[in-house]
Amino acid sequence: MKVNFKNTPVGNLSNIDPEDVGDVLLKIERSFNIRFTDQDINKIKTFGALCDLVVEKVKIVQSDSCTTQQAFYKLRSAINAKKPIEKCDLRPQTKLCELFPRDNRIEVVSDLEKEMGLHMNLLRPKPGIVWAFAIALILSITISFAYGLIGYIGTVISITGLVLAGKFGKELKVKTLGDLSEKIAREHYLKCRRDASTVNRAEIAEKIRELFADYLAVEPASLRKEAKFA
C-alpha cells in the first residue's frame, strides 16, 4: 500500500475510541510477537513514536527482503499443497472467488489456514444479515424494559444469530491473492517471513499504518509521524 504523504493533512488519532486503538495495538503485538507495557502505552503520543517503539522492540536480525512477497509465496505453496495448481496460474491478480468456491469455501479456507499455521480472518457474513440481527438486538433490549421475558428471548436469539453469522459467513473480505498476501503480511508479519528470525525494519511503519487503516477505516495518507493519539 503505497501512499503519497506530500501536502496530506495530519490525522488526529485522539478522536478514535481508545478501546479501538487498544485493539490495533493487540494486533501489532501478535503480528510482530512483541508486548507493550503500561509504561510503553503512556509514552506513545504520536503515530511516529509508536512505529519507533515497535522497531525498537523487534530485536531480531535485519533483512531487506519483502514480507508481502514472501506472504504470497507462502500462500501459493499452501494452495498447491492442498489443491495442486500450476504455479504460473497463481498470480497476485488471481481472484479468490475462483480459488475458493462458495459451496465449500469455509472448509477450503480452514484447510488452508491449517496448512499455513495462521488465521487469515478472510470470511465474513453478508452485511445485511449482520444489520438485521443487530437491529433485532437493539429492539429486544428496548422491549425487555416493558416485556422482560419476550425481550430476553429476543436478545438471546439476536446474539446467537450474530455469533452463527460470524461463524458461517462466506463473504470474502478481499478480492485477490495479492490483497490476501498484503492482509496476512500485516496481521502475521513474522509468520510470513521465510526466516522468522529476520525482519525488514523499513517495512514496519507501513505495516502498522495498514493495520490502522484497515481496522479503524483511517485514511492511510493521514497517518504521518506527527499524527497525535492524545
Can you give a write-up of this model?
The protein has 230 residues and is mainly alpha-helical. The chain is built from eleven helices and four strands. The strands form two sheets. A two-stranded parallel ribbon has the order 1-4. Strands 2-3 form a two-stranded antiparallel sheet. α3 packs across α11 (201-216) and α4 packs across α9 (177-187). The longest helix is centred in the last third of the chain and has 21 residues, at 148-168. It is flat. Mean pLDDT is 88; it is low at 1-10.
Q: What distance lies between the first and last C-alpha atoms, to the nearest angstrom?
A: 26 Å
Which class do the helix and strand fractions yield?
mainly alpha
Radius of gyration from the alpha-carbon trace, in angstroms: 20 Å
| Number of extended strands | 4
- The helix/strand order is HHHEHHHEHHEHHEH
* Percentage of β-strand residues: under 5%
Q: Name the average pLDDT.
A: 88
Read across the widest sheet, the strand sequence of neighbours is: 1-4
Q: What composes the largest sheet?
A: 2 strands, parallel
Helix content: 55-70%
Summed up, the helix count is: 11
- Give the low-confidence spans: 1-10
Query: How would you describe the shape?
Result: flat
